[in-house]
Specification:
With 146 residues, this protein is an alpha+beta fold. Helix content is 62%, strand content 10%. It has one domain. The relative contact order is 0.18.
């Protein structure tokens, strides 16, 4: 089992705990079906370091979530095993932590995606599955290889 990941974001200590394997697998499938090809655009931009493309990638992910999951419940699911300064992130604390603080939320959400979904994206066997979910390029797999 992998260790939890700890990172300071916006002056707050976050602990990203790994989700149980089956739950994480189902969450990844659900997430990729909601956002489609937006994930490939985002990680491709991250790999290239182009800030305008990174912003576009984030915008596409958020737009896809808004259209396909207007309640934003997938975001709470992705962040469900995370704590901020020792306090669990849930429906109540989410608004307390991030109202007026969207930049920190976006960074914490990205770190959660890395912790939970990176292992799926480096496996060549999943590339066919991911292509069915949206535009997935070889560049993503290469940029996320562990």
């Amino acid at each position: 089992m992998q260790d939890n990941v700890t990172k300071t974001i916006g002056g707050h200590v976050y602990e990203f705990r790994h989700l149980p394997a089956m739950y994480n697998t189902n969450l990844f499938i659900k997430f990729t079906s909601i956002i489609g090809g937006s994930l490939s655009k985002f990680f491709g931009a991250m790999d290239g370091g182009d800030l305008s493309l990174i912003g576009d990638g984030v915008s596409k992910i958020m737009s896809s979530i808004h259209i396909n999951d207007p309640q934003g419940l997938i975001i709470l699911e992705i962040m469900s095993s995370t704590t901020r300064d020792g306090v669990a992130i849930n429906k109540t604390t989410f608004d307390q932590f991030y109202t007026g603080n969207i930049e920190e939320m976006t960074e914490a959400l990205f770190e959660n995606m890395v912790v939970h979904f990176k292992p799926f994206l480096h496996l060549n066997k999943l590339s066919g599955f991911l292509q069915q979910q949206g535009e997935v390029t070889t560049k993503i797999t290469e940029s996320l290889t562990i």
